[in-house]
Write a structure and sequence with these properties.
Outer membrane efflux proteins (OEP), 67% helix, rod-shaped
């Protein structure tokens, strides 16, 4: 039951992330990134290459058919002497047969010879072919899961970059408003000092506030420029391409899972764990593959063609052969045994890596869920501070209108309110970023490139 509740919570988070853009702006950017990101395209090509290697491994089950032709011209070499005349001529003479046979000398090499044939080899008993196919299948699955892992990370990076851009843009806008107030604050402080209304320390403090604001504005402008460039880089667009902003405020994620529920979802859904599980299977097949070296291999071989001194393709010069060829490696210095031992150790290594990955993913999920909860409380505190800053400014402004507070106090209250606005905006977008990270580490939601 808790698992179902957790899934519902995460689904609500994902739905709110999609809806907060006010027109699916962010979703459209995510789709664009999945289509055009060159690093993701590279991962897809690697997956397609692995699939092609699997088809290659499947071809080993089928027969190999080839046409082989050979034409040979030879001279010299060994000869075979046949004393036919010495053996048969005395017989013919005794029988009074007028025949004289010469002795024969037959060269071992024919002066001219051609052989043209179709050569067919069909594996009959080759266990290595089956385990090679299983290994290629596991490699293909690992590559496909690698594409999913990278896609999910890319989605999270695009969302985070978009929120960072909106955060930097909001901070720049608020600092622009604050800049006018702080400049006015410094001007008023200087004027009051000339009329002996404030001390020199007040003027210096106002000047320091103005310098700090200018530094913060320059830093915020740099962050906004970098966030624009990084976001466009993820989408493979020109680095200075404009970014569309939502028309209205973005609703925050309403529900978040408990840390234990986030752990359960992450362990069940993360593609990294599925990758390592397939890697363990791959190592198991590798052990079996190395063990097949202790078994015999059998193949059927069939040849059909023509063989003669000249190229004559007729029934008198054709031939065919069919055979079973077996090979059994009985001893090779224990090399096969040591290869099996190495494969077993690799399998144990992958199992340890899988267990370590589970622990790290549990920690990531717990940290992400806790970060979202803390981010929500931080936003609530920032909102209260913003409300308090606005009310304090309203009180100071009312006193100023009644002649009970100096203008410099009004400007200071307005500056404090603006700073509270900045902190609230930062807390809001940080919560969005943490929610996107939570969705990434729990692997909830499916993003596929539509054709």
């Amino acid at each position: 039951m808790r698992r179902v509740v957790g899934v519902a919570c995460i689904a609500a988070c994902a739905a709110s992330l999609a809806a907060r853009t006010g027109g699916d702006i962010l979703d459209r950017y995510v789709e664009e990134g999945l289509r055009h990101n060159p690093a993701l395209a590279q991962k897809r090509f690697a997956g397609e290459k692995s699939a092609a290697a699997l088809h290659e491994a499947a071809g080993l089950f089928l027969p190999t058919v080839s046409v082989e032709a050979r034409y040979t011209a030879a001279g010299g070499g060994r000869v075979i002497d046949l004393p036919i005349g010495d053996l048969m001529n005395p017989v013919y003479q005794a029988l009074h047969v007028p025949i004289t046979l010469p002795n024969q000398t037959i060269p071992f090499l024919r002066e001219r010879e051609q052989e043209t044939k179709v050569h067919v080899v069909q594996p009959v008993l080759q266990p290595a072919i089956m385990y090679n196919y299983k290994i290629r299948s596991a490699l293909r699955d690992v590559e496909r899961l690698s594409v999913s892992v990278f896609s999910r990370g890319l989605v999270s990076d695009i969302r985070t970059a978009y929120y960072n851009y909106l955060k930097a843009d909001a901070v720049c806008s608020l600092l622009t408003v604050t800049g006018g107030l702080v400049t006015e604050h410094a001007r008023v402080a200087e004027s009051l000092f000339r009329h002996d209304k404030v001390t020199r320390a007040d003027v210096l403090r106002a000047s320091a506030d103005l310098a700090e604001l200018r530094r913060a504005a320059a830093e915020a402008e740099k962050n906004r420029s970098l966030s624009v460039s990084y976001f466009n880089c993820l989408l493979n667009r020109p680095l200075d391409a404009p970014i569309e902003k939502p028309a209205g405020p973005m609703p925050l994620p309403v529900l978040t899972p408990e840390p234990a529920e986030a752990e359960s979802l992450a362990v069940a859904n993360r593609e990294e764990l599925k990758q390592l599980e397939r890697a363990v299977d791959l190592m198991r097949h590798k052990v079996s593959l190395n063990r097949t070296s202790f078994l015999p291999g059998v193949a059927a071989v069939f040849d059909w063609g023509y063989w003669d001194e000249m190229y004559r393709f007729d029934n008198e010069h054709d031939f065919w052969t069919a055979s079973l060829a077996a090979s059994w490696n009985l001893f090779n210095g224990f090399q096969d045994k040591h290869r099996v031992d190495q494969a077993k150790l690799e399998r144990m290594e992958k199992r340890c890596e899988l267990e370590d990955a589970r622990n790290r993913i549990r920690l990531q999920a717990r940290d992400a869920a806790t970060a979202v909860a803390v981010g929500r409380r931080t936003l609530e505190a920032a909102a209260q501070k913003r409300l308090a800053g606005r009310k304090a400014f309203e009180l100071v402004e009312r006193r100023y209108r009644e002649g009970m507070a100096p203008q410099i106090e009004v400007l200071a209250a307005r500056t404090a309110w603006t700073q509270a606005e900045i902190e609230a905006a930062v807390a809001e977008y940080d919560l969005h970023i943490r929610a996107a990270e939570l969705e990434k580490v729990t692997a909830v939601g499916e993003w596929r490139l539509t054709e």
